[in-house]
Amino acid sequence: MTDILLYAAGSLRLAFAPLLAAFQAQSGAAVEAVFAPAGLLCRRIENGERPQLFASANLAHPQRLAALGMAQPVTVFARNRLCATVRNIPPLTERPLAETLCDPRWRLATSTPGADPSGDYAQQLFERIERREPGQGEALRLRALALVGGEHSAPIPSGRLAAEYLIDSGLADIFLGYASYAPALAAYPALAVRQFEPPLAVMADYGLCLLDVWAQRLADFILAEQGQEILRRNGFLPP
């Protein structure tokens, strides 16, 4: 029988595999984890589904549940940052990243705004570019293809990473996603992960909220030293 039901952002899947294994070995409690875009998970909870713990890739979704009286106050448990994964070819790796991004020759893909916080962070990047270079950010917003993370998005095949799959399949040349995937993407020499520098660096705060006190022990483990170390090893930044 499952002791704890966890809903967690899809970007936590790789890190939470060893984290949940360590928790289960220590506590003896079984955990069923459901991974999906945090915005879609939030909607499912609002519509009546009842996980005991929700780990989101932003603060807005768990804060909404808390405001509705469906969850306890939100705790930041990790941070991430937006990055660009590109084809590993000189035209995409040698020019300044913002200049490369704005070049209309390249197919630019993101996750789906509203449904997936990654897509929302991409929109924040476009807004920052627009403030710096009027017209360019708006052009990016119109050009970007929201290919994953939506309710009706085509699924990414099992065992594939979104950036790797979309670029390898010829659907995109650049994918805006999370820097926590960089260690896993390093296994693909056809790809390069590029980081944005301030003021274009967009940071992501990950929020945790309890919907049932029965999951308090799992929340405590995620926030404690062992859970935090596992998250750091998997590319996340401390809260």
TrEMBL record:
It comes from Serratia ficaria. Transmembrane segments: none annotated. Keywords: Signal. GO terms for biological process: molybdate ion transport. This is Molybdate ABC transporter periplasmic molybdate-binding protein. It comes from the Bacteria. One of its GO terms (molecular function) is molybdate ion binding. Pfam families: SBP_bac_11. Residues 1-21 form the signal peptide.
